[in-house]
Design a protein that fits this description.
heterodimer, A: alpha+beta, five-stranded mixed β-barrel, 22% helix, 44% strand, B: 4 helices, 8 strands, 21% strand
């Protein structure tokens, strides 16, 4: 027997190897049901600025400071959804308050789950933005964008450009309409 | 030489995703001509009829791609309940790998909202229009920027939309004409 000739020194190594292989196999088995690559398309209700203003908990202008990570959660429809978490540094609060706001956008990659979401708000670090935000129940200080793509604008110079649709208007007009809707 | 250049141009055009102002196609598709959908999870007969009507609308476009009712299919039309602005969601599952064919699709209607049928009063959304939109994603067509298109990304209450030449051209361009 070959094993009988192994020195006692090698036995811990062998056990470690078996444990490591077992852990990897268990991890793979755990991950297997989540392994998918899908594209998600949502049809949303058309929302105007007054509606978005009313339905938002927080409205800010700010700068995208950092892409934090991705999280995978049940999508409420029997599958998985991946969200990308972004740290936003507010410059101005038009509604609500809070510093260092974390915003979740739809889609991303988490281990072997890949979710692409059409018209998802594609933030980039350094973007100057105006965001209509709704608090995520049970996730303190974390928000999702109200009205999907309709509630996120990139601020470029004097323009506010809606993510996803590229519709542009002046930032001054947009903030004025928000403030009017708040009164 | 001219023939080689022409052949090269045709090849390049063939592998590029189709994008036009009228419709948008992401560049992957089903590798079968008939796809079955199980609509039984919808429960409400009028909702199942709306799903069948939408499939037939797309089938009548005359493309070499047909969607049918098929009990027990892994492609399902069902509903869920979520307090959100989303009316419906289509999920298209792609194979891992280079080609990324679609091998499964699911459509989910958000039962949090009121749909016609059955609602005809108050604020409702036209379910056959929503079904046409969602089956358009199954094909797969993407959203377009034309507000009047059935493939526009958002919808107002009471809005009714039908397939137009643009969408018919889209499915025909992807799968060819019957």
């Amino acid at each position: 027997m070959e094993f009988a000739n192994h020195s006692p020194m090698k036995r811990p190594l062998r056990i470690s190897l078996i444990v490591a292989i077992g852990l990897v196999a268990a991890g793979a088995l755990w991950e297997l049901p989540h392994t998918s690559r899908k594209i998600v398309d949502s049809l949303v209700i058309t929302k105007d600025v007054p509606q978005l203003t009313t339905e938002s908990d927080v409205i800010i202008t700010g700068v995208v400071k950092k892409k934090l990570n991705t999280v995978r959660e049940p999508d409420g429809m029997g599958g998985d959804m991946v969200y990308t978490r972004w740290l936003i540094s507010p410059v101005r609060h038009l509604k609500g308050n809070g510093q260092n706001i974390v915003v979740r956008t739809d889609g991303g990659r988490y281990l072997t789950t890949i979710v692409d979401v059409e018209d998802s708000v594609s933030l980039s670090v350094g973007d100057s933005t105006l965001l209509f935000l709704r608090a995520i129940p049970g996730a303190k200080g974390e928000y999702q964008i109200a009205g999907s793509f309709q509630g996120a604008y990139q601020l470029k110079g004097s323009e506010a450009i809606q993510y996803g649709s590229n519709k542009a208007r002046t930032a001054h007009d947009l903030t004025t309409e928000i403030q009017r809707s708040l009164n | 030489m001219r023939k080689i250049l022409l052949g090269l141009a045709i090849s390049v055009a063939g592998i590029m995703p189709l994008t036009a102002a009228a419709y948008s196609y992401p560049g992957f598709k089903w590798n079968v001509g008939t796809v079955g959908f199980d609509t039984a999870p919808l429960n409400v007969p009028a909702w199942r009829s709306a799903a069948t009507e939408a499939m037939n609308n797309w089938n009548n476009a005359g493309a070499r791609f047909v969607m049918i009712n098929y009990a027990g299919s892994q492609n399902t039309v069902s509903y869920y309940w979520q307090n959100s602005d989303t009316l419906a969601v289509t999920q298209r599952y792609l194979r891992y790998g280079l080609w990324g064919d679609i091998y499964r699709a699911t459509i989910k209607i958000n039962n949090y909202h009121r749909f016609n049928p059955p609602y005809t009063s108050g604020t409702w959304f036209h379910l056959p229009t929503i079904m046409r939109h969602e089956f358009g994603h199954v094909i797969p067509l993407n959203h377009v920027s034309d507000l009047s298109s059935v493939m526009y990304k958002s919808i107002d209450p009471w809005q009714v939309k039908h397939l137009r030449a643009d969408e018919v051209n889209g499915i025909r361009a992807i799968y060819g004409v019957r």
